[in-house]
């Protein structure tokens, strides 16, 4: 049975299950015979299970299918300068455990990854996940990336990270396959396959230490091997403003991003002390969260800074909507755990007056219900949706029968 057929059926069961064979045929467009053979293979491989019956309009009740949660497990890690989020999920994508820890800061990549591997092993033990059932780890970082070689292509957070073999090194440390993915793309995977959005075409604006973007078109992710497809954070909004690290001036990231907001607040020594801001790059997300909490409590200075940032980011959201003819955008990322509603309100107003899709259909801007961990969950889902699922017979250890650890990543399906 073709891997693509197996993957498409698994994806549908993951998002719509429990579901019958008849419904699988109707929604995939595959023949009843193909569905029968596919389901037989999935049942035989322990990837799906029967989950009761549903009465039909005529004839016998239809047998329902659902994913077997314990078929495989995966780890997702979202790694940034400011924070690290690690999750472990079962085969359905359900989060079993999550943990937040300090970001990479200025630390060398080798030491950082060694500590991360030990942290992952501790979480797997605490979650009582059978080590032999862990399919792999999805490592989520900023872009641009060389996903085939498992590297970041920019000198961030420090030059030592540029072209360092992240995926290969972590794979060796954990004896697990490691797939590298862009943070905004991973967040889009999470929103799509955990059911946050009810459409097959939408955008994600990711706000963490920086700003990124991802787009899913008719259920397929837009992008290429460089993991650099929708860099909405580097759309110039004010050509006369601050020079960005990318070489442009006035990009969304340097005019509306968390670091810009914190810098404005911390520029006044009295405000810096009053709001308890560190001002250090490693503390950008912590400082931004303090501002968001203060704004939520009615602090005028913090509110004005966040609203100004939200208005700028709203322009970038509308740009994304018009470039890709989107009527739905999800705002996600650790910076929006508290501040999300402020940014969604501004973007909704902007979309209502400037998104061309509004002339044809309703437009909306949503806040992810799992903004803080969506990218990490998406990293785990990238693994669970990859060809590794079909390459490993149940009962074997991933890495024993898969590619040698640390070599080029399998080509995972787009989100």
From TrEMBL:
InterPro entries linked? ATPase_NBD, ROK, WH-like_DNA-bd_sf, WH_DNA-bd_sf
Query: Looking at the Swiss-Prot or TrEMBL record, what is one Pfam family this protein matches?
Result: ROK
Coiled-coil region = none
Q: Where is this region: Disordered?
A: 391-415
Span of the signal peptide: none
* Membrane spanning residue stretches: none
Per its UniProt record, what SUPFAM superfamilies does this chain match?
Actin-like ATPase domain (SSF53067), Winged helix' DNA-binding domain (SSF46785)
The entry assigns this protein to a family as follows: Belongs to the ROK (NagC/XylR) family.
Q: What is this protein called?
A: ROK family transcriptional regulator
């Amino acid at each position: 049975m073709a891997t693509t057929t197996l993957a498409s059926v698994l994806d549908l069961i993951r998002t719509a299950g429990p579901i019958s064979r008849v419904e699988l045929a109707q929604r995939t467009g595959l023949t009843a015979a193909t569905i029968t053979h596919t389901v037989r293979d999935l049942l035989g491989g322990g990837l799906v299970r029967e989950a009761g019956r549903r009465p039909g309009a005529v004839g016998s009740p239809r047998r329902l299918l659902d994913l077997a949660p314990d078929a495989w497990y995966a780890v997702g890690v979202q790694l940034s300068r400011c924070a690290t989020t690690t999750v472990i999920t079962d085969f359905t994508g359900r989060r079993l455990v999550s943990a937040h820890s300090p970001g990479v800061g200025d630390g060398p990549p080798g030491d950082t990854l060694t500590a991360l591997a030990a942290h992952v092993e501790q979480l797997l033990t605490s979650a009582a996940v059978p080590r032999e059932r862990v399919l792999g780890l999805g490592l989520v970082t900023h872009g641009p990336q060389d996903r085939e070689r498992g590297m970041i292509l920019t000198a961030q957070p420090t030059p030592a990270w540029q072209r360092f073999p992240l995926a290969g090194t972590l794979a060796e440390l954990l004896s697990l396959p490691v797939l590298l993915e862009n943070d905004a793309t991973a967040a889009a995977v999470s929103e799509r396959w955990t059911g946050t959005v009810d459409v097959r075409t939408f955008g994600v604006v990711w706000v963490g230490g920086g700003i990124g973007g991802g787009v899913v078109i008719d259920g397929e992710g837009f992008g290429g091997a460089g993991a650099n497809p929708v860099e909405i954070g580097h759309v110039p909004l004010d050509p006369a403003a601050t020079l960005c690290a990318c070489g442009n001036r006035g990009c969304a990231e340097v005019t509306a991003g968390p670091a810009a907001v914190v810098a404005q607040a911390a520029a006044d020594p009295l405000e810096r002390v009053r709001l308890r801001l560190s001002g250090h790059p490693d503390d950008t997300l912590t400082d931004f969260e303090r501002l968001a909490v203060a704004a939520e409590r009615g602090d005028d200075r913090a509110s004005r800074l966040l609203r100004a940032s939200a208005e700028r980011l709203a322009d970038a959201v509308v740009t994304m909507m018009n470039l890709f003819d989107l009527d739905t955008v999800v705002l996600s990322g650790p910076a929006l755990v508290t501040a999300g509603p402020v940014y969604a309100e501004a973007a909704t107003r902007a979309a209502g007056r400037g998104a061309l899709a509004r002339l044809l259909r309703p437009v909306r801007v949503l806040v992810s219900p799992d903004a803080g961990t969506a990218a990490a969950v998406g990293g785990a889902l990238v693994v669970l949706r990859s060809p590794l699922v079909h390459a490993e017979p149940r009962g074997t250890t991933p890495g024993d029968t898969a590619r040698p650890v640390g070599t080029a990543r399998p080509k995972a399906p787009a989100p």
